[in-house]
Amino acid sequence: MTQNRQQVRHHTVTAKEAGQRIDNFLLKQMPGVPKSHVYRLLRSGQVRVDGGRSKPERKLVLGEEVRIPPVRMAEKGEAVRPPDKVLNKLREAVIYEDAHYLAINKPAGLAAHGGSGVPYGVIEAARAWNKYDFIELCHRLDRDTSGVLLLAKSRPALLRVQKALKDGGTVEKRYFTLLVGRWKGEDRDVDSALISNRLESGERMVEIDDDGKPAKSRFSPKARYRDCTLCEVQIFSGRTHQIRVHALSLGHPVAGDTKYGDREEQKFLKSLGLKRMFLHSHLLALPADGEFPKLLLSAPMGDELRDVLDQLNRQGPVAPTRTRRR
Fold this sequence. Notes:
Strand content: 25-35%
Radius of gyration: 22 Å
Oligomer: single chain
Number of domains: 3
Shape: globular
């Protein structure tokens, strides 16, 4: 991969850019640069507005001069090749392959695909193997979610999965998740529409809204601990952050979820070694369709999640005393 190192640039804010936050402005000016690096440039004072430091939330004013420091970026339109370490890790994570499909037990922390501030993901890594004439994602998993991720090796195979997902009910998707709090009773269904919004920072937040897209989840308790519950969740739709928001609506946020959960409330789980969100896609099943036979895929939970469950079994942690708002 060739890279382009810019020189220092001095940009005068136009009428169209006036009122825009400096962090959002820089993300547009630096395509391909991770968001974390942009914020680092702001914190270190390398970005200047009319000669002074600027906080990320500062809004630009017409005619101001912005100093944009030199950064290394991929050439526009050029694919970023993942490091060999990532390529090898994903080769070891393959759980199934036939003439039509490739299935990977996706590690948490790796995106399904590259995008804004994310230089590469699973699909870019699979293409970098230079093994397939055609390879595409059949569906997606959140970056912080691990588990079964299916890729198609031909367009007919891709269309078969897309059709099954669109039909609804013909694809079976099940997850394991650890929820904060003691679960009362047995299975619970959540049938609540979801709507996705973008904050000024660019962060995506999802909430329950009657005007949103239909979403249904079924939570089934599998193991009960003193202050949390392991559940299997079957989803009948595939909305962004669906399990996380539905779980929160039940009063039981997903363990390790720093976006929708209460960090203070979950400190006791971090002390047991939970370093990520406890959400794992463990099963994906597709019905037979024409030339394609039934497909049943499963992915085991990683040791980092099993170790937390072992700690819960042995220690029975005490969660911090708290009063829930009603």
